[in-house]
Please model this.
Amino acid sequence: MTTIQKKPAVGQVNPIAHLDAEDLELIAKELDDIRQSVIDSRGERDARYIRRVIKTQRSIELGSRVILLASLFPPAWVVGTVGLSVSKILENMEIGHNVLHGQWDWMRDPKIHSSTWDWDSATPADQWKHAHNELHHNFTNVIGKDNDLGYGIMRVDEDQPWHPMHLGQVGLNFLNALFFEYGIAAYDLEFRGAIARGKTKDPKFRREAKAVLSKIRRQVTKDYLVHPALSMVTGSFLSTALANFTANTVRNLWSHSVIMCGHFPEGVQTFEKRSIDGETKPEWYVRQMLGSANISGSKLMHIMTGNLSHQIEHHLFPDLPSNRYGEIAPQVKDLFERYGLDYCARPLPQQVYSAWHKVVRLSLPNGWLDSTNVRNLPRQLKRLYDMTTGGPRVRRALQARMVQEHRRTLAPAA
Amino acid sequence: MLECMSSTVAPARRWRSRALKLAEAATTPLVPADFLDLFAPLRPGADLRGRVESVHPETPDAATLEIRPGGDWAGHVPGQYVRIGVDVDGVRCWRAYSLTHGPRADGRISITVKAVPNGQVSSYLVRRTRPGTLLHMEQAAGEFVLPAVGPRKLLFVTAGSGITPVIGMLRNLYPSTDSGVLRLPRSAGYDIVVLHVAPSEPDSIFLEDLRRLHEAGAIRLVARYDDVHGVLDVNDLDALVPDLTQRTTFACGPGGLLDAMTAHHDDRGLPLFTEQFRVTTLVAGQGGTVSFERAGVDVECDGGRPILEQAEDAGVLMPSGCRMGICYQCVLPMREGVVRDLRTGELTTAVPGETAHGGVRIQTCINAAAGPCHLDH
Model:
């Protein structure tokens, strides 16, 4: 039988062992009904919502850009930079991401449509839609198929063998956060894979790479040439360029944090490639339920995260209007509770901490972080040093010993 | 002369185009218009829109909307129609309506809409539109206009809301003022009979206008009500309009009446111009022929499987993605037709003239044909 769960790690239990095929069917039926109720009531109120968000975002952007024309004056710099950061976050999260998902296609407005929209990001909309809508949303949290999971550069699961290069993944993840839009462009392009497989001469790759470069050129020209040049009237070229760089960085850090919270905190399940062979729709639903995590918070928080704070609801119904996720969340949560599933939702700081903690933990050999304390620190550091400098055999042996020690601490005292 | 032109006009144009390029570079990936639309949606150069200035009820189920068109409105000839895009329950719908005034001094235009039963758009326009609403528009179009030179003995046959283009022509010929109907030199020599057909007297839009014109001697009005006179039989035309054979007929109304009129006039070799708005009625069924217009391929599709699969089976190169309705990579424009969402049973229809130019975009991976469909692919 096909199972959707991965092999439970040491000390964990299979989260859906208590559900049989009939339960899964019932869950799917309830989820279909929730989806249908939203579609039936979709209308003028929703259309007004997205138009208001777009109008607000464009007004803030315009206002901030005008204020930044005099960015040499510190108050103008601060106000303009804050405004531009907010506008860039709104543009990417609540507007761009969701429009490109086709959440607003039902309005039949050619100006707010997934097939015509482009966003303020290094990655061209077409490539992002392929990598995100088609791959990430379909293969959510399946190791080796879902590039969003560690972006193909990180160790994301205990089952992946540890290698010394993983020690660098904390720094790598931070760099990725700082330059996140370029990181996304690179993995939408499947840049690393193309280099690894020597496919950089492939015409499709070349065409897409050209599209990315041209998009980046336009983006960079706008933020670091045109607007700074317009600010020269007040001698503010450099300060405006710096303001734009700051706003882009703020957005990068923010969106990286929000997205990391969606699938990476502790308690979120990952899945083996083999586990989705012949997967049914109910199994797909449950994988989305277990593979996503929410951020709890205020209405403003939800809007600023593009309602990705309702990641679970978004992954169950990627094409429902984002303003509805919050409304159906209580029903979805109730469903989780009735079927004994863990609805992973915590405030932003906790989720961010949890996700980073996992990055750190997985950058080290399995069990190392958990079993290290002040007393055994010298021994553990020695082990880590040996595993880092030694060959695969040394690593396997020391790893096995640490796992056994960890098991013993979990076993009930005899 | 030519040199003189190029030295003054060309640099101005070059500066304009440079400024435009700069504005585009400053707003990419949006365009400058996206920001200008925030403040001036009716400015020249914007997509053509109109603002509803006032709504006048005409009958219990019809209203006239007075609209201030955008700066690029190119004017119209009485009898022409305009396509209006309006968001009904959040969904952009397009319909054609006759312009019911001649060109006006204040630059506004008006359309008269009758709420048809189950007509989402007409009901919305009549009952829920408020002054200030922005509408999307196209330039006026239509060949149903009075020829500038030509016959002056005319018969208008109008049924139901078919009166709207005709009232536009009549108001242009005979403007109505507080002091009565004006007789202008340009209208001299016209001899007009209006045969107005409606289900009942209270259902008649513009009846007051027609009566006023009749009393002023501008036209001769023959009104026929289904509930009083029975449904109009075209063979009675000779009795209603004795000099029928000397007149050129303009008919506007539902398809059944126009078909009967065409047969009647063709038989007797009489000149006839017709206008019908709703050209096709789509009935949803199970399956149908899906035409991929650019590929030049027709595929017989059953109603049980997605169009995507069946088109691929037939060898059409199709865009595709998740194949479960979530990624929107398989979306294609449907110019005409009906499809059914296999998950929800929901129907999506595309009717040329009613839906936006370029058609309605449908997900081919979860929609099955529910009738003949034309996809732009």
